[in-house]
Amino acid sequence: MQTVLNQLYFSDRYNELLDSNGQLRPHWQALVAQLESEAPSAMRQRQEAVQRQVRDNGVTYNVYADTHGVQRPWDLDVLPLIIAQDEWQHIAAAVAQRATLLNKVLLDVYGEQHLLASGQLPPALVYGHSGFLPTCVGIPHYDNIALHSYAADIARAPNGQWWVVADRTQAPTGAGYALENRTIISGAFPELFRDLNIERLSGFFASMRDSLAYWGHRVAENQALTVPEITPLGAGEPPLVVILTPGPYNETYHEQSFLAGYLGYPLVQGSDLTVRNGVVWLKTVAGLKPIHAIWRRIDDDYCDPLELNAESLLGVAGLAQVARLGNVMIANALGSNLLQSGALLGFLPKLCQSLLSEELRMPSVATWWCGEPAALEYVINNLQYLVIHPAYPQVQSSPLFGEDLSPEQKQSLIARLRAQPDHYIAQEQLDISHAPVLVDHQQAQISSLAVSLRVYAFATPNGYAIMPGGLARVASGKDAREVTMQRGGTSKDTWVLSHHNQPPVSLLRKTNSSRDLVRENTYLSSRMAENLFWYGRYCVRNLQKAIMLRATIRALVEYTPDTRAGEWATMQGLCQWFDLLPTAKDEQALAAWQAWTDDDIAPLLIEAVFSQQSASLATSVQQLFQQAFNLRERISNDHWRTVNTLSRQFITRHPQPSLQDAMAAIELAINHFVTLTGFAMDWMTRDLGWRFMSLGRRIERLQFMCVLLSRALNMPEQSNLEWLLQVTNNLVTYRARYAAQPEWLPVLDLLLMDENNPNAIVFQIKGLLKYLEEMDARDNAGGIAVELRDCWQALVQLDADQCFHAADPTLADWLNRTYQVTQSLSDRLNLRFFSYTSPHATPGY
To answer: InterPro entries in the record, alphabetically (predicted)?
Structure first.
């Protein structure tokens, strides 16, 4: 191990693991001692377990234009970054001070503007920044807090000094990833994590939630005073706090959905919200609900298309006016992007003296704003040692390293600097510290790479709470001069050692009396209800596709054309109904279809399983994954892991798959679909969201059963009906009851009329009627279940002896009519609950 440690030592950089003599730093000794006591295979197995858990949990970070798309896995190193308690106390105090300072700057710039009037901030630095939003000047802030969430990117110089490299003030990202890193890595070193008394993260999130609730109650009081139709919150009633997301294609959407589930907040998009009477409302299936606090993950100018950016499709029209009235608390306040400008860094030491009457506890990396003449000349004269960045977000330019520039490029850059000096800043190129990283997972080899730390702060009524640790980020390679996840960086868990035992902290809200009990989710957004509805439909549809493909491939493989002639055309027709096989669109195509041989059909069935370009099972599974991705905060981790594992099964296709490969994939998929059914039926609370999902499941199954039976009734009278029982999962039940070959009357009775059979048509109809009548009663509308009830009454009046056979058209007519009713029912649910255009919608929609 000592040989390995010697290879990690570099004299020109600070080493987090080793001191200047190449010896272990004290706070790393326990981790290294455990690694020394283990066989190399133990570390390899630990890393594989970490990677597997990242994949199974579906932890993703979407790099734009990356080929992995929304499924790009998060990169997590198994070795944590360890920080001693004494050092951490200095970091935490410095970050809290900096958040306090920047909050005061933000309040002044959008308030009385003393800093601009006195010359402590150059007007060009503020007014020339596209992040400065004049329309937000004068917006009030509860308790003078405009910067609720803050993150500082810090790095260590060769002398061991921590420096602030950048401030994140608009919508800081990464806190959720830090929490997920902790969950995974603490499980990789459970005994060590316990024995070292690592500071826990849950207390930080508890403070965050308590603070948002505190300000939410303040807003609720203001709403009740200014808007007559809003009643004050009851004792113990929580305010409505939402997380506003740009949507599932945002690079950190997984983190947003993870935090929403962890904190218990609705994750909403701009289309879920509306502004009425000076209040932001959430569109729920129970009507409009007033929102008290918004934790936004949308950039400033996209938040309000009415006042900020007319082209935005992400925000809420009128949001700025609601903030101006004090009827919503927005974290962070609109306009906070201004503080992310690196041009401010050079002014913070004097601002700290002016506003806080104290020295800045942690310096910023040396920064020169070229808008100052003296700074411009210094930058031009020392260009080879500096990195040039844009001062404003509207300046489209990548960082330029002076040492990389040719003489011609230097002259061109100098010309640009002199032409528009206020558009650029220059920073010292910092050789930041290195930390140990596991680089070869197979050989368990450790290397040393540059590391930076993002530390998070959140405002409370009593000052800023600091997350103990934060998100450690590692450079992508030895020669990388920037640490960024967008360019292939790796993350680490950050362990802050404590002198005391760390008790677990629960985020569950304390219930003080029976008045605080909640048994229904009243904040189910219409979009979430629609997602749940279609998730239920996709789950059943995928299972039906898989079972239909399995039955068809079995018939192809196990029987000759002569022995499967009776039902074969029906099975092919059902595959065509699912778009799994080509459809005959004219007489010539029909003749070709009827002439298909087994050799023609086999490759088509293989494509129906694996193709990424059609309505195949693989494509449908990815659609199911996307639907689940939109519901991430509503489903359990086990539920999500099953969906994620199922999706990965179909991402990589066999080079030349056979029918056996297709059957293996189908069987595995069916197992996963059945598991998802178990989660839906046994692990999800039967609240309003579950009922919408159940409606989707039952409508999809009812439609399939109608199509299946109506087509089966066209088969010859003596056709083999075992396949019909197989695709409806009723073969075992039939054999147990009749111990005979399947016949039409008992088969149709089992599939139509058996109320104890979860795949029977009557079972689906009765369940649908129950939920639909409950929904009719909720909004006093009535009528949505009338047509389906007529179908049920017509079914129970059918004479089984007369109608339950292939020759009678009465049953076929009933099946066709019921199918049409289910289509109409789906449309009416959409109009009533999802699209806000129903005549029965809650007033104000």
So the answer is: ATP-dep_Glu-Cys_Ligase-2 (IPR051680), CP_ATPgrasp_2 (IPR025841), DUF403 (IPR007296)
